[in-house]
Amino acid sequence: MRSTSSNYRTRRTTRAAAALAAGALALSLSACGGDDDNSGSGGSTKGTETGGSLSLPKLDGTTLEVAAVWTGDEQKNFKKVLDEFSKRTGAKVTFVPAQDPIINFLGSKIAGGQPPDVALLPQPGAIKQAVDKGWAKPLNADVQAELKKNYSQGWQDIGKVNGKQYGAYYKAANKSLIWYNAKVFENAGASEPKNWEDLLNTAQTVYDSGVTPFSVAGADGWPLTDWFENIYLSQAGPEKYDQLAKHEIKWTDPSVKDALTTLAQVWGKQEWVAGGSKGALQTSFTDSVEQTFTGGDQPKSAMVYEGDFAQVNIQQTKAEVGTDAKVFPFPSVGGTAPVVTGGDAAVILKDSEGAQALVKWLASPDAATIQAKLGGYLSPNKNVPNDAYPNEVQQTIAKALIDSGDDFRFDMSDQAPQSFGGTPGKGEWKDLQDFLRNPSDVAGAQRKLEADAAAAYGN
Questions:
Q1: Which of 16, 120, 169, 341 fits a 20 to 30 Å CA distance from 402?
Q2: Which N-terminal residues, if any, form the signal peptide (predicted)?
């Protein structure tokens, strides 16, 4: 659907709940299990250069291509990670800018006989597609050993298909955050909410101070799916979330009615949404961030929902993260606060010693630490030092990700067929835009969502 950067796009245990109670921003994703597999060719470690404790082969004369749907600072910072790999191994690595959806891009490259050696894929479904099409190659034992050292079992499992390890998650995103204009909150006497009722009270306090509470990015369908997913996960629980993600229950289920009804408590209050429904439907994600953090203490909105990657957009407004722009976890609607996340996994398309070594490098703390220091990045690698992240906000988010262990849920729409969960003007994106236009029509929204889901899933 989208990458885990500015382009893009639970918890089940008391451990994660305790982290939230302590003020951490806990993160989680859903994992699919499977047995370990040691298949995959390449990856000989004879004659190696060692950077710290990481052993990599000598690859003088080797050329590699890496494809990802990353632009701007994200692409520039990732290239620095690739440059260090080249320095340590002697390989020449070229970054190939890909178009979204990357599966379609890769299909055209493979049809032309020029696939990249490695691709960064933004959804578990994309990894499965690459495997089903015969494109993806299993990671070898050496790479898997690096994964086991640095990743929780859940992060390893989400990169598996049919029990074999195909993906190494290099990047993650916490998509359960609400960013706010600190000066507006201070002037209003508002505090960070802990639950949904608190959020509604905070919104009223902000409104009474003369500032519209929320900016909603209705022009882009994907932030609307993320709003729904956070409410649904917290209110209906992880089992229902998994069932709906697989379309094992219908969108006409009472749990969906409850979540949409809750969502309408914000979307249905025209005075709480910058520009009302009509204005929100013309507001892009970038605009939603901008109108929250420009205008000093009288912006167009006080709060904007989205993931940690919004920091890139916030910085473009000249607001300082941690001072002007602060953040709190998406409040709990049910008994547990929700956390929805996404990620990008390195997958090998041309099996070779060089490709296997490159994915091993991307699975190492050495690689992730380079990009962590540059900002706008979050790693699921548990051995990246927390102080590598450049500010307190990112350090808090990163620590909570690692502390959450194996308790995680992946973005629901990213798990759905693309025609339902990831296409502008169609499926869930369009249906939730229609619901934003008329939040009183819960039953009508459910019927549309179910009809589109049934067509996409084929059931």
A1: 120
A2: 1-33
**24, 75: one domain:** yes
Q: What is the pLDDT of residue 30?
A: 34
What is 373-401 written as a DSSP string? HHSS-----TTS-GGGSSSHHHHHHHHHH
- Which residue segment(s) compose the domain that 113 sits in? 14-174+340-412
pLDDT, tens digit (0-9, with 9 covering 90-100), for 359-380 = 999 999 999 999 999 988 999 9
pLDDT under 70: residue ranges of the chain: 1-52, 407
State the CB neighbour count (10 A cutoff) for residue 60.
8
Q: Let me know if residue 139 belongs to a domain.
A: yes
- The predicted structure's pLDDT at residue 161: 94
Domain membership of residue 4 (yes or no) is: no
Question: Does 299 reside within a domain?
Answer: yes
Cβ–Cβ < 8 Å for 169, 20: no
Question: Based on the domain organization, do 150 and 260 belong to the same domain?
Answer: no
Q: Which helix (H) or strand (E) holds 342?
A: strand 341-348
pLDDT tens per residue across span 176-192: 899 999 999 999 999 99
Residue of 96, 70, 66, 67 lying closest to 4 (CA atoms):
70
Q: Are residues 193 and 282 in the same domain?
A: yes
Element (H, E) at 185: helix 182-188
pTM of the model: 0.78
Query: Same structural domain for residues 447 and 435?
Result: yes
Nearest CA to 146 among 171, 161, 168, 166? 168
